[in-house]
């Protein structure tokens, strides 16, 4: 089984547009579409803040794997949505398809409820592309 | 398989340092981090537990320049060596492109090396990967211990135990001193990247 999905240039551009429209325009600071091997597929950032996205993706892949193992212990297949709340910045993870995660970093100016709605929209549109 | 981004013309290559616990995998990465500081833009990430043992993995990304117009991002990982952390080891192996097997030269660790290599083989099989087909480099670490009078395995013995069938390139090394750490890394990068070249054409 190979885990890395291959994308062509058009697909990547289409995904970037979706993430820009649904999330960056909403005020989200950073979005990363990544695979579970820890590879960054698409990354968009707004504002001045730059995150170390490669380290973030590596840790997020590990984190997702660990949490999935926790899910199995309580009889769940997985937790398809994770949220880590910080004082200023928070991280939201959502599964897109098998082996693909969408990671969103946002601050207090974005409401969690609205973000979840927009992430769900973006995920649906990306699923339609791949 | 490495991830190729045709838009950014970027390739992400995942190399994993595998081997028994306390064998020097993290020490390899720490040395690389110090030695190649200028080329490494971000901090080395380590997830450690009580007693300074690797719990999850260490992660060290750096750029090695361009091949066929693509910028190559190497991502070095270690796995936790302790037997009980197999689930985590398997997780880190997901999507691996190349492996360095760090064996411990200490006499006492002979059995642990063999078991860890067997464990690597089995874990790769869960991803339908064959240890004989993946770029792999052997490193026989802790050669410096001989000078301290600690009994170590001869290179011949290590080769017979671990590498008689694999026939992988091998390096005697001392991660603490830095002997052959860079050579091991360069070898696995060259090995892994050459298998990618065809794909980039």
Can you tell me the overall shape of chain B? globular
Uncertain segments of chain A? none
How many beta-strand elements of chain A? 5
Text of the CATH class of chain A: Alpha Beta
Please provide a brief summary of the model.
The complex is a heterodimer of chains A (130) and B (201). With 130 residues, chain A is α+β, with helices and mostly antiparallel strands.
Please give a structural write-up:
The complex is a heterodimer of chains A (130) and B (201). In chain A, strand 3 and strand 4 (89-97) form a beta hairpin. Chain A has a single domain (9-129), classed as Dynein light chain 2a, cytoplasmic (Beta-Lactamase, 2-Layer Sandwich). Chain A has helices at residues 9-24, 53-73, 112-129, and strands at residues 30-35, 40-45, 81-84, 89-97, 100-107. Chain A has 130 residues and is α+β, with helices and mostly antiparallel strands. Chain A is globular and about 40 Å long. Helix content of chain A is 42%, strand content 25%. Chain B is globular, with a radius of gyration of 16 Å. The model of chain B has no long low-confidence stretch (mean pLDDT 91). The A-B interface holds A 1-4, 6-9, 12-13, 35-41, 52, 54-55, 58-59, 61-62, 65-66, 69 and B 1-7, 12, 14, 42-43, 45, 47, 56-57, 59, 61, 73, 75, 77, 87-88, 91-92, 94-96, 127-128.
């Amino acid at each position: 089984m190979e885990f890395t999905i291959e994308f062509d240039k058009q697909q990547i551009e289409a995904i970037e547009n979706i993430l820009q429209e649904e999330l960056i325009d909403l005020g989200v600071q950073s979005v990363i579409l990544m695979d579970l091997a820890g590879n960054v597929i698409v990354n968009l950032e707004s504002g001045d803040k730059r995150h170390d996205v490669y380290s973030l993706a590596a840790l997020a892949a590990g984190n997702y794997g660990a949490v999935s193992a926790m899910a199995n212990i309580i009889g769940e297949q997985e937790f398809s949505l994770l949220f880590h709340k910080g004082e200023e910045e928070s991280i939201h993870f959502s599964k897109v398809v098998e082996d693909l995660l969408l990671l969103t970093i946002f601050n207090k100016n974005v409401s969690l409820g609205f973000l979840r709605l927009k992430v769900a929209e973006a995920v649906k549109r990306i699923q339609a592309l791949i | 398989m490495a991830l190729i981004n045709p838009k950014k013309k970027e390739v992400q290559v995942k190399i994993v340092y595998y081997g028994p616990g306390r064998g020097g995998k993290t020490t390899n990465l720490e040395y690389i981090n110090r030695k190649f500081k200028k080329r490494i833009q971000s901090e080395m990430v380590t997830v450690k537990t009580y007693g300074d043992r690797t719990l999850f993995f260490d992660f060290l990304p750096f750029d090695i320049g361009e091949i066929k117009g693509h910028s190559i991002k190497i991502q070095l990982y270690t796995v936790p060596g302790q037997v009980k952390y197999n689930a985590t080891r398997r997780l880190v192996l997901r999507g691996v492109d190349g492996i360095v097997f760090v064996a411990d030269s200490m006499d006492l660790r002979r059995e642990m090396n063999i078991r860890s290599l067997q464990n690597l083989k089995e874990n790769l099989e869960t991803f339908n990967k064959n240890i004989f087909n993946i770029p792999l480099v052997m490193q026989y670490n802790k050669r410096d211990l001989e000078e301290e009078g600690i009994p170590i395995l001869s290179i011949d013995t290590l080769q017979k135990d671990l590498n008689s069938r694999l026939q992988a390139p091998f390096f005697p090394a001392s991660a603490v001193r830095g002997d052959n750490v860079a050579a091991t890394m360069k070898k696995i990068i060259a090995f892994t990247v050459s298998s990618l070249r065809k794909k980039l054409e």
